[in-house]
Amino acid sequence: MSLQPESSRLVFRTALRSRANSYANRRRAKDLAWRWVGTKWPQLIPSASELESSALERRCPGQRLLLTTNADGSAWMLEVAYSEKNSRRTWTTRATVTDTGEADLMTLQTACSNLDSAPAVIAPPKLLGAWVERLDLEDGGVAVVGEPRMVGDPMQLDAFCDHVLLDQRALPVIALTNKANSHYYGVDPRGLSEAVRGVAHVVCLTPELAADASQRLGKNLVPVPGAPRIYGMHFSPAASPKDHPVIRPPVVAKAQDPGALRRLLCQRVCAISVSP
Question: Which terminus of the chain is more exposed, N or C, with fewer CB under 10 A?
């Protein structure tokens, strides 16, 4: 059973493992999900006794909530759908917390209906940021964090290249490097890291080490000063640069809106998350 309309299209999804595997860890993930619901749709919050239900459905004008849990309690799913004001769009977000036996798996996805009617602002739900901050999550064995990783020495460069080349990596890597004699990365690294936490990794390299990365990543696929490069999954030095693009904002947007590139990058990594 799902609240998602048939006309909906996925606009974001992520699946992250927690290094912890415990009831307390899963309880924390669920509590954070309920806190997120309470902040956005307080009318949908059930009573304290209902919070422990194995199945629940609640409705308010333009809002619906569905909760299901499997027989042994190892898989918990919370889904919320709401209608956007002054439009025909319905946004549906589904969060799951699953005990796989070896790890706790947290998944989150958002779908939207009537996307073709007008441009939509695509961004991960704030619940994902709360999970990244409060749970010990990883992507292919690499910790998922909400801040940029700094690459300032050869050992850190090796770790960066290993990460980009890691076949088990499921999240893209956004690589930033500054121009010589400048701290300009093209986008604020911390603001970007917060915006894409749980959807992409953000790494900042010195210009010298960015150039040295050509030895392992290929001269046409190194980070570019002042312009973020997105390394998608299953990267290899033989890849086409268009598959791991450098992202630049329109000149007009850059001058008028300093946050334009951050939002563009966020939309691009969300699109990557639902690509085949």
Answer: C
